[in-house]
Recover the amino acids of this structure.
């Protein structure tokens, strides 16, 4: 294993839960003995974030907790930087620590400076976030996709590098085919990744968005969402139902509500779903005011 790999494995513990400060210090010291690297005190003014950092959102609570920890104990784990110009460095790992140090108006931060390729920089940045579960599901999926698009890694190779099952990578990448509204709901935490995987069982993007509205409007759990979709799929096997799939999709899109057409012995009926009194009122207004 290369010194870079040893350093990465040690500096980024994979165990769940908080890692004691003494343990981090011990790991860091052992890593430095293995790699022959040094910790430097780098002026904060000479450091800038990596624009390709996979993680885009930092919660206020996380930053407050980290700032309080640094105020009490200092920065226990050094940042990993790469030199991009004389007197100028870019963050590879440790952006949250750098941000917290800025809030505390520290002048310098402890850092290890490494020379590495763009691929190595992205791998370390991704690994730091993924191993600590800091990325939300959409950030993780986009990071995996970037490893494929920009670095030519297939799903199996990504899984090997990250120490994950290939199915985990494949399932994450599937989130990228969901409509933008569903992806935004995942990213903001309004629905879980498990909700999203359930919505992936629906092929029609319009219906995925409609069911998203139901999940949000009714506050459905994953189990309740699964039951709701089971009922929907069961309806698709009704006699003559397959004749109306295209018409249902068009009506659902037009009304922005779930529409089902049910054929009966004589004629049939159109059923329009709604999730709240407000949505019902909007539907009624739309019909009464249509020309």
């Amino acid at each position: 294993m290369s010194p870079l790999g040893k350093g990465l494995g040690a500096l980024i513990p994979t165990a769940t839960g908080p890692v004691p400060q003494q343990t981090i210090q011990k790991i860091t010291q052992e890593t430095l003995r293995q790699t022959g690297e040094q910790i430097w005190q780098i002026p904060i003014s000479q450091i800038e974030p990596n624009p390709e950092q996979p993680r885009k959102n930092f919660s206020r609570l996380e930053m407050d907790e980290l700032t309080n920890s640094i105020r009490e104990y200092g920065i226990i784990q050094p940042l990993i930087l790469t030199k991009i110009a004389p007197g100028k460095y870019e963050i590879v790992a440790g952006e949250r620590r750098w941000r917290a140090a800025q809030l505390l108006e520290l002048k310098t931060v402890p850092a290890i400076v490494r020379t590495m390729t763009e691929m190595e920089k992205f791998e370390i940045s991704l690994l730091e976030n993924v191993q600590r579960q800091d990325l939300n599901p959409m950030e993780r999926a986009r990071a995996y996709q970037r490893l494929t698009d920009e670095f030519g890694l297939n799903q199996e190779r990504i899984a090997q590098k990250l120490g994950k099952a290939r199915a985990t990578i494949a399932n994450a990448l599937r989130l990228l085919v969901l409509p933008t509204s569903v992806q935004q709901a995942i990213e903001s935490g309004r629905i879980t990744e498990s909700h999203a995987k359930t919505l992936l069982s629906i092929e029609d993007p319009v219906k995925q968005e409609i069911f998203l509205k139901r999940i949000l409007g009714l506050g459905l759990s994953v189990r309740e969402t699964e039951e709701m979709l089971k009922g929907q799929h069961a309806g698709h096997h009704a006699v003559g139902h397959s004749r109306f799939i295209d018409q249902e999709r068009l009506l659902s899109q037009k009304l922005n509500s779930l529409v089902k057409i049910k054929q009966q012995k004589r004629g049939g009926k159109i059923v329009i779903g709604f999730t709240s009194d407000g949505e019902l009122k909007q539907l009624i207004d739309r019909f009464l005011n249509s020309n």
The chain has two domains: 3-135, 194-289. Residues 3-135 form a domain with the Conserved hypothetical protein from pyrococcus furiosus pfu- 392566-001, ParB domain fold (CATH 3.90.1530.10). The two ends are 72 Å apart (CA to CA). The beta strands are 40-43, 47-48, 79-85, 88-93, 108-113, 259-263, 268-272.
